[in-house]
Amino acid sequence: MVTFPGSAVGAEAEVLAAQLQSFMQANPDIRVVQRVTPDAADQRHQLYVQWLNAWAPDPDILQLDVIWAPEFAAAGWLLPLDGRLGDDADFFPATMEANTWQGQLYAVPWFLDVGMLYWRTDLLDAAPATLSELKAAAAEARASGQVSYGWVWQGARYEGLVTVFLELLASHGGSMLDRNGDVAVDSPAGVRALTDLCDAVEQGLSPRESLTWHEEETRFAFQMGRALFMRNWPYAYALMERGDDSRVAGRFDVAPMPAGEQGRSAATLGGAQLAINARSDVPEEAWRLIEFLTHPDRMIERARAAGNLPPRPSLYERDELRAALPMPAESIQRVVEHAVARPATPVYTQLSLILQLSLHRALSGQQEPEAALSDAARKMRRALARFGLPGSEPAAPESAL
Ligand code: GLC
Fold first, then answer.
1. Where does residue 83 fall: left (phi above 0), alpha (psi -120 to 50 degrees), or beta otherwise?
2. Which of 81, 111, 118, 241 could cross-link with 308 by S-S, CB 3.0 to 4.6 Å?
3. 118 domain-assigned
4. Which residues are 252's β-sheet partners?
């Protein structure tokens, strides 16, 4: 028996269940059992850490967020996968780097996430190219009563908020760590990015209640027709285009996030990876399942059913993928080109937790953006020093893929 964590909802859950079923038909000697895990990134992380800290052999396979592999690998929780993938492995280099720690590969990319701007094609002729255009359009649509919200994003205190902030930060020319690995969130670009978000809440463009929202609450607001713009991952597209409960089917499109002061647009790189629990009693069976699920054909099925983007570059040249994706391949390509990876460090979770607190304090009006970020930067520097680790900003943050 191989245990597999299931955090999928809706179409993703259905396609996964079907794929696990066909794996079992093709491999009658292996039974796959799903373990239920929460959807929100931080809650999932907490549960995994509890399992793994207790050296539990179950679940055998771990679905990792793109930022977890260094932390889990450094803790000795993952089985090294070197030698299992051929040299010609067809994955975007940024996703392979994210899954590598001290020269060893620990996880196989499963699907890719990029932050993108969903916009209402029935209310606007074109997506805003800059943040100022976005804010102006959002204010106008609210003033005319067309929508209650201008711009919705993930504002709860969790990893999603960090991804929103880092996108804006990169669009203003900043990054979480600088090229020497030092913390850089308190840069002028950082203050600008956080001020943008605070202003949006202050001016009512983004609803105050969104300071408790994750991906799904944001999607519900947009698919009810209540917002002009939404920042979210690709998964939302298929659900809003096909769902019976969607009021915006056929009335929205996706675009790269608008450019900030440096004239740059950025998309946080996210996504899921599959790894093997170092304590698994059935690592070979687990590997057979990972190979099956990360096969190009399974990725095309996921793209068709749930709009998940494959992390295999060669698939983007295939008409089959273009036909399978629920959104225009050109829109995706433009977003993917602007992908920015988060730092690959075992301390990432600590850095993010510190940053989340400060971002949220500023957004809820308890601290000015500048003070909040300088507090965060100080604590983040201390966390890095405590681990005796320099940070490492990915080599080419402006073009991760
Ligand atoms: C998505 C992304 C992941 C990110 C998370 C934040 O699941 O794939 O990388 O950390 O959202 O909420």
1. left
2. 111
3. no
4. 120
| Residue 177 lies inside a defined structural domain of this protein | no
- Work out the number of other CB atoms within 10 angstroms of the CB of residue 301: 18
**Atom of ligand 1 lying closest to residue 163 CA:** 6
290-318 confidence digits (pLDDT tens)? 999 999 999 999 999 999 999 999 998 89
pLDDT tens readout for residues 221-249: 999 999 999 999 999 999 999 888 999 99
Say how many C-beta atoms besides its own lie within 10 A of residue 267's C-beta: 28
- For residue 284, the Cα-to-chain-centroid distance in whole angstroms is 29
Residue nearest to atom 3 of ligand 1 (CA): 270
Range of the domain at 94: 2-113+269-330
Could you tell me which of 21, 67, 42 has the C-alpha nearest to residue 273? 67
Q: How many domains does the chain have?
A: 1
Q: Is residue 359 part of a domain?
A: no
Q: Which of 56, 381, 398, 157 is nearest to 256 (CA)?
A: 398
Say how many Å lie between the CA of residue 26 and the centre of ligand 1.
31
Task: Taking the CA atoms of 270, 276, 279 and 281 in sequence, report the sign of the dihedral they define.
Answer: positive
Atom 9 (ligand 1): residue with closest C-alpha? 270
Give the residue whose CA is nearest to atom 8 of ligand 1.
Answer: 271
Quote the ligand 1 centre to 91 CA distance (angstroms): 19
Quote the ligand 1 centre to 185 CA distance (angstroms): 20
What gap in Å lies between CA 216 and CA 196, rounded to an integer? 23
